[in-house]
Amino acid sequence: MNILITGGAGFIGSHTADALIQKGYQVRILDNLQRTVHPEGKPNYLNPNADFIMGDVRDKQILRQALSGIDAVYHLAAYQDYLPDFSTFFHVNTVSTALLYEILVEDGLENNIQKVVVASSQAVMGEGRYRCNNCHGEDEEYLYPAIRLEAQLKTGESEHRCPDCNETLQWLPSDETVASPCNQYALSKYSQEQIAIQMGKRYKVPSVVMRYSIVQGPRQSLSNAYSGAMRIFSLALMFDRQPVIFEDGKQIRDFINIEDVVAANLLVLEREEADYQVFNVGGGVSWAVNDFYERLQTVVGKRKVPSIGNTYRYGDTRHIVSDI
Asked: Where in the numbering of this chain does the NAD-dependent epimerase/dehydratase domain appear (predicted)?
């Protein structure tokens, strides 16, 4: 089977390529080597047995060339950043997905493609699912809070509160039915999900969406701010700088190792029952950010007292854990 991986030079893509090649698949990579992710160009870790095409997923001619002779696609190319260039998120993440299906249909390739696996994100779930244990009880409907306002964060109040009794809400793991995107990245990924599932069904292209939680492991880009807590804390310890933990550090997150992500990617490729579904891909364990930093210090063998509670980042979710 010949497989195309868009964004295949990246973190998840390159590991997926390695695993596929090891299993005997023929792999082609399409990547534009975005500078914020690959400041030194084509990475040395890229598998030499993979065919490499330098190009952008928004370029129809290049994407059409990359799809020639392909049996399955991992659409992992994505734009991730904290910059307010909103249109770029949709051009790269959403429009490229529409373009992928457009080419498949225009060129009559939809019957040749055995699977399209699209990378999405836990960010699609927004603030996630909550319950009020005080006045609602376990049998009441779930609550899905909106993004916390900056006015609230400025007071130092971090938690979501019940709109009826004002008690602190209890966070709950969020399953795949939860979709409440509240920033440009999440909105673009949710649109991408809908294109993949609906166009896949319409044109009988077996399609699967993978909602990754916070993926950790080797080959993460240290130059990309979106690489997350592991990058921030590791660089601080490496260069003997005081790390900054936003809010009180008690916010809950869900981390997953890259090896587990790759295993999930290969599983849906080989299983027909995965078709036309969205899957959470998470670690199954909740971590407070403070505890995550404590564990990292132990592993690294170096300690540095962090700055906690002195700042916040507007738009961050308070607690989010994928229900797997």
From this structure: 3-130, 177-282
